[in-house]
Design brief:
With 445 residues, the protein is mainly beta. It has 4 domains: 79 residues, Membrane-bound Lytic Murein Transglycosylase D, Chain A; 165 residues, Jelly Rolls (Sandwich), CATH 2.60.120; 72 residues, Immunoglobulin-like; 98 residues, Immunoglobulins (Immunoglobulin-like, Sandwich). Helix content is 7%, strand content 51%. The chain is built from 4 helices and 34 strands. It has an 18-stranded mixed sheet that branches. β13 and β14 form a beta hairpin.
Length: 445
């Protein structure tokens, strides 16, 4: 796929990850230039000394702009300065926030970062399970490195001629999510993987690399991203993605946002489980949980099994947000939707029944344990099971309003019974109700 792209693609070409042999056979592309308007007192020699890599670089500018005398320039004339000659000085980034097991490898030292810590070119950020780190770039752009990822800060530069920033990251494993502020030429932003380069001048996009399949995925949420792999190229607009592997790229639409099957249901059980409505084309689903809708304070992330629910380990009670996406068989993560939910433990466990005989009477004591925070009220139900496997009988006992974690009955006739307990409590302005699984009780003669 070939096209005549603007300077967006030029950044990708400069950072191309294609093998040297493949590059040598690729067609030559026009040199990217920056227009400079001559001001009083400017000379080519002074411009080269102040803004270019070497003082003698003025000779190329003189030749390509057909300047007769490098010491005399017409005021107001526009010179085309080759970008590859312009000097870019070191720039810095900083740690805007992190959570979980995050390691910053910098200056030969590997350690947990600190909030506000300066990050320089060639540093590597690594995250463990349910860990996140947010990197703030000098122009207000942000990069989030989610869980189980390794990202190298491969370029942090600022052009001397106009202060334009030029940044590049390399996703060595896992993912990076970027929200890039529009950039002044000749600055740019790129994310590399071992098989692709994604270049922009300002947009919102994600890049991932799967080491096992040696495949990268770029997903564009806003703006446009140029993706190159070897000699193959694609330009992805918003709501499009590019799957790249072995020097080939494939442009695909992003999957729409999936939906929860029960979006209003509070999370009351031991594990946090979200049932998802099946979405055509989705292989699995991804969820991220944070304390804010913008996912700045994210602390947990999980992928579902193919077609299965999202399952998270136990977490503290509170109000949270879930960002939900679907993943295609090509590894592209689709559009996201965000849900708010309440995590408030409410359940019944430790169910048991014992029989005690006193004064020729049998007493049956049913016990349970409340699971959750705050006062709970209980409801006890008991019914007789059908002996022939048919429909069970009506409720024999339906006792609400219990405050003790026990209930006693006496003189039940022989037979097979089932019983269960409901726990109800008010949390976060809601009434939470949860039933235990039915338990069986057999009474002989």
């Amino acid at each position: 796929m070939k096209s005549n792209w603007s300077c967006v693609l030029a950044a990708a070409v400069l950072l191309s990850a294609a093998p040297a042999a493949a590059q040598s056979t690729a067609p030559a592309r026009p040199t990217e230039t920056l227009g400079y308007v001559v001001r009083p007192g400017d000379t080519l020699i002074d411009l080269a000394t102040a803004y270019m890599n070497r003082p003698l670089d003025y000779r190329r500018v003189q030749r390509e702009n057909r300047v007769v005398n490098p010491r005399r320039l017409s005021i107001g004339r526009t010179l085309a300065l080759p970008v590859d000659l312009l000097r870019a000085d070191p720039d810095e980034a900083r740690i805007a926030g992190f959570r979980g097991a995050v390691t910053l490898h910098q200056g030969g030292v590997a350690a947990a970062p600190t909030a506000g810590q300066i990050v320089r070119e060639s540093a590597v950020l690594s995250t463990g399970a349910n860990a996140f780190v947010r990197l703030a770039l000098s122009d207000g752009s942000h990069v989030v490195v989610p869980s189980n990822s390794r990202v190298r800060v491969s370029r942090l530069r600022r052009y001397a001629i106009n202060g334009a920033v030029d940044h590049a990251l390399t996703v060595e494993a896992g993912r990076a999510e970027s929200r890039v502020t529009p950039r002044t030429r000749p600055g740019g932003f790129a994310i590399r993987t071992p098989v692709s380069v994604s270049a922009v001048r300002g947009t919102d996009f994600r890049v991932s690399f799967d080491e096992a399949s040696e495949r990268s995925a770029t997903e564009v949420l806003d703006g446009a991203v140029a993706v190159a792999s070897g000699e193959d190229e694609a330009l992805a607009a918003a709501d499009q993605g590019v799957s790249a592997a072995a020097g080939a790229v494939r442009l695909l639409p992003l999957l729409p946002a999936p939906a929860l099957a029960r979006p209003d249901a509070p999370q009351t059980q031991a594990q946090v489980v979200f049932e998802i409505q099946p979405l055509a084309g989705a292989e699995r689903y991804r969820g991220r949980i944070a304390q804010d809708a913008g996912m700045i304070e994210a602390f947990a992330e999980a992928d579902s099994a193919p077609g299965g629910p999202l399952v998270f380990a136990d977490m503290e009670e509170g109000a949270y947000f879930l960002r939900l996406t679907a993943l295609s068989p090509e590894g592209l993560e689709g559009k996201a939707t965000t849900y708010s939910f309440i995590r408030a433990r409410n359940g019944v466990g430790g169910l048991a029944s014992v029989m005690d005989q006193r004064d020729r009477r049998r007493f049956y004591r049913f016990r349970w344990e409340a699971e959750g925070v705050g006062e709970a009220a209980f409801r006890f139900q008991l019914w007789r099971e059908a002996e022939d496997g048919g429909v069970d009988g009506p409720l024999l006992i339906d006792q609400p309003g219990l405050t003790d974690e026990a209930f006693t009955l006496s003189d039940l006739p022989p037979g097979v019974y089932s019983w269960r307990v409901q726990s109800a409590r008010h949390r976060f302005g809601r009434l939470l109700e949860a039933w235990s699984e039915p338990q069986q009780l057999r009474i002989g003669r």
